[in-house]
Amino acid sequence: MEGSAQSEDKRVERSKAKxxxxxxxxxxxxxxxxxxxxxxxxxxxxxxxxxxxxWPSRSALLIDACSRFGSVPEVPDVGSLQGDMRALxxxxxxxxxxxxxxxxxxxxxxxxxxxxxxxxxxxxxQKSFMTPFEIVIERxxxxxxxxSRQSTDxxxxxxxxxxxxxxxxxxxxxxxxxxxxxxxxxxxxxxDVG
Amino acid sequence: MEGSAQSEDKRVERSKAKxxxxxxxxxxxxxxxxxxxxxxxxxxxxxxxxxxxxWPSRSALLIDACSRFGSVPEVPDVGSLQGDMRALxxxxxxxxxxxxxxxxxxxxxxxxxxxxxxxxxxxxxQKSFMTPFEIVIERxxxxxxxxSRQSTDxxxxxxxxxxxxxxxxxxxxxxxxxxxxxxxxxxxxxxDVG
Lengths: 194, 194
What we know:
2 copies of one chain form a homodimer. Chain A is mainly α. The first copy, chain A, has helices spanning 2-30, 37-44, 48-54, 58-66, 81-98, 105-112, 116-142, 152-168, 176-190. Chain A contains 9 helices and no strands.
């Protein structure tokens, strides 16, 4: 009996993995609006009823599939705000210009404008991507490296906003001199005692 | 004969206007992926063949409809880079937080990832929205207000990127103190003779 329950578990895991892989594939290909339970069932060979047994709704499946896009970066700790920010921004620039989720993220942003469940997911994803930036800024604040009263949220937006902008809006290459320009601005402003 | 040609012209204008109004309505409601010629024909009462007579493709119609979203801001000229940038950023913040095209633009960004015609349109729209920023920066450069070697494109991205980021990614309110923080950073860095 135990053996049979185990093989049943394995079968469930395999079919869930198939569904997630197909969802991921369709997301990367067509963005979120191109993903339907119908299409996932057809391409994965897993019946719709089985899909709905594991995920109560299309949104629930999308959230699960999206959570596999891009891991959260590690938090660097080189001892200075400048060094930590540089490591994080270089890593972000690399991800923005190569990772799979780049072509999917705008479809999530778009869907979030009209779907409150996707909007909550997007907020959570964004928050988790940006946590390392918050940590290095708060750590620098604790070390006394940040003397200005700028909020951490504002500093994060000033650091990463220009990179997001270049990737999705102006469609320009993000190089290391651009990153250095941003860091230079932020370092001067945060160390201002005036 | 002339009178009849004129009324024919008017009828054409009226049906084109109906199609554009319906396209605009569907865009605002569902984003670009929700717009179909089929649906526009059904809701506007204009036959598909007539729509295709005026616009050779769905992309051509979308481009025409999108070009009516948000006019390009006027170029301020208060005599200083700081004043001009402030006027433009306050105007941009207002637009980002109230205008109709806010909920449509992510769908354009998304479609641009997969459709090269939409991508060209998006690049042209973005360029035209940002032209006033380029003009005030170039004018300040000519006045000798900008002593750094930062490119105009980089400065535009550093100015507007954080606003775009707050609107669509972090979903935070853009207030005037945030705008002042950004301008302060840019003014210091551009006036640096070092």
